[in-house]
Amino acid sequence: MHKSLFVLLLAAGLRAAAQSPTPLTARLDKVSLSFALGANGQPSYSIAYGQKPVVQPSRLGLVFQDNQGFDGALTLTGSEVKDVDETWQPVWGEVKNIRNHYQQLTVHLRQKAAPGRRLDVVFRVFADGVGFRYEFPRQQALGNFVVLDELTEFALPADHQAFWIPGDYDTNEYLYTKSRLSAVDNSAQVKSSTEIAVRVAPDAQAVATPLMLKADNGLYINIHEAAQVNYPAMQLHVDRASHRLTARLVPDAVGSKAFLHAPANTPWRTVIVSDKATDILASKLILNLNEPSKLANTDWIKPMKFVGVWWEMQIGKSDWKYANSLDTLDAKGQLIPTGRHGANTQNVKRYIDFAAQHHLGGVLVEGWNTGWEDWFGNWKENVFDFVTPYPDFNVQEISDYAKSKGVQMIMHNETSGAATNYEQHLDTAYQFMNKYGYPAVKTGYVGRIIPRGEHHDGQWMSNHFVRVAEMAAKHHVAVDMHESVRPTGLSRTYPNWMASEAGRGNEYNAFSIGSPPEHETIMPFTRFMGGPMDYTPGIFKLQNYEPTGKRQVQTTLAKQLALYVVLYSPLQMAADLPENYNEHLDAFQFIEDVPVDWDDTRIVAAEPGDYLTTARKAKGKDEWYLGSITDENARQQPVKLDFLTPGRRYQATIYADGKGADWQKNPAAYQITKQVVTSKSTLTLRLAPGGGAAVSFKPL
User: Fold this and answer.
1) Domain residue ranges in the chain
2) Residues annotated catalytic, as ranges
3) Which residues form the signal peptide (predicted)?
């Protein structure tokens, strides 16, 4: 061959290789990741589990406001692969030690049209899934920039069964729908929802993450995100024909998605996969993708159980507000009390007494501060100042009384959506908590957000929630955020951010149609994937607890006990009234005993929407606690006790559904039995329709 012809052919081959490089791969155990750059310069990735496709070749990219984003032709400039295997210990959590083992593939790209602009795509492949994100290195050609859209896709190979809620910009408090992806249509669900003050995005095929999927070939797949900081929440648009999911970011007040400055990065997009449902719940992939704790000292962060002046307002026994309105004044210009105000000194002392008697760490009080007469739906900025109590709430007296009883008070700060007002008062509010000895605060963001036009799940509010966690940490206060963006593992980075709501909790049984028995069997596979939830379990009076008498909690009493194990939170509420607990103190013993911090967790059996059985080992003790729940179907659940220490004998106290128990007809029937067991024993738990069982194992 002529030398010049050879050189030309070689050059042509190199150009072709640059345009269509050999796929770059990373793998760990059964999970493999492949990245490719197409002939048109478009990047894509795919994921497999063994020989089964999880995500077929799917697009990557971002659209910028200046039309010079990474949505056009890109060039591959290099790549690296590295292996990481380390172990870290969370401040609190479901296990004592977490292994962080992955293979990382970093792909370096640049624009063809603007070669000075560079983008890295970083993939981390774990034994149970993949995380990936976009990183923008420091570069002269990219300073401030605005993201208009993210083009990330998840091309699924089939019409999977999905457990989903609508992609609402402002709330995640929906019931889950189980359907094929081809049947996703949230328009009917949103229109029929009269119990949520929604402002849903105009996309009937958008769903929220975490999205749980079950494939007909036996795979379980969970799609979510990790470390959502300085970026809006990701929702997913479902193409019902192709089963292709496309990232849809929550916009800001002017329709943009994110304002960034290089160096910067997006959150991690996460795909957790296994052929066992139990592995999905055991995954620590999302936590591992978050940064280590930013707090130098975490000794002050203490998990706790608590009771509170809360459920009595939900069911209409008392009220948050002190007066009927701001206009109800007496001759001296003082508010005239309604006589139904729950947060009064004597009532709060009653809860403190109950907490002290049953060794519960704290008491939450809502409605203690002025402003509740004019707080909801008004879009006003200065409703609350977070430090002024109502006349019948003596802050000092209550704090002193709680201290004398060995109980800590938990603050409540409702913002009515006025996040800017809260930020102006943050330091003052947290100094107030320090002065009166409040170690934790429950925040709330009911209503439309101020700044006007911003959304609960947008970039501005995502940053606000981080600012609150940081301010709380400065004052050694733990935070439980309600109406917040759904969690993405940031409790690792800010371990004082101990819980969130961001989902449909037990409260919906008080004022709406409630939640069906399957609800709690779906939540661990969806809402709980990113972090703990303040679900408020422990309701004992399951019928005839509110004025109409028509509503009921759609579980048995034994299932309410089991929720303390299967639904994890380091801040766990015993949500019912003291008088309702006093009628069943033998059953309440489990709530008194069950820990909120753990050394080990085993997912014994699970199937989303059907059943779940979880066992956990108490922090620093050889005690185990087990919770087992079912949907509307009765079940017999065998449980091998091989998690117990071999050679030791334990007393198992079993809190089970009683004879004839049924969530509709006989929810309060329960029985308590005891037996001696070892690691070689097997229990068979009989779960009633809508029922459950809770078991404590204490060494003899």
Assistant:
1) 23-288, 292-503, 538-544+565-700
2) 507
3) 1-18
